[in-house]
Amino acid sequence: MTDILILALDLLFAEGGGLTDKDEDGLSRNFEEEIGTNPNSNDSDNDLLTDGDEVLKYKTDPLKKIRMMICLVIMMK
Fold first, then answer.
1. Rounded CA gap, 17 and 41, in Å?
2. What tens-digit pLDDT sequence spans the chain (77 residues)?
3. Does a structural domain hold residue 15?
């Protein structure tokens, strides 16, 4: 049983594993695949906000660009 658990953890945390965050945006590869963002790009919609910030901090859609004026207002808060 222990060997199976160790193998499972190795697979999750290995390069490209489901809990890794290759693009360093704060979202795991599994979560990014679940919500449809690109796990290799920290800003899937190229709006200058990381996917992680959009999901976790600003509660915006990381797949839809938001207008820069709105970004500036949010960032100034």
1. 16
2. 576 666 566 556 656 667 889 999 999 999 999 999 999 999 999 988 999 999 999 999 999 987 655 556 666 66
3. no
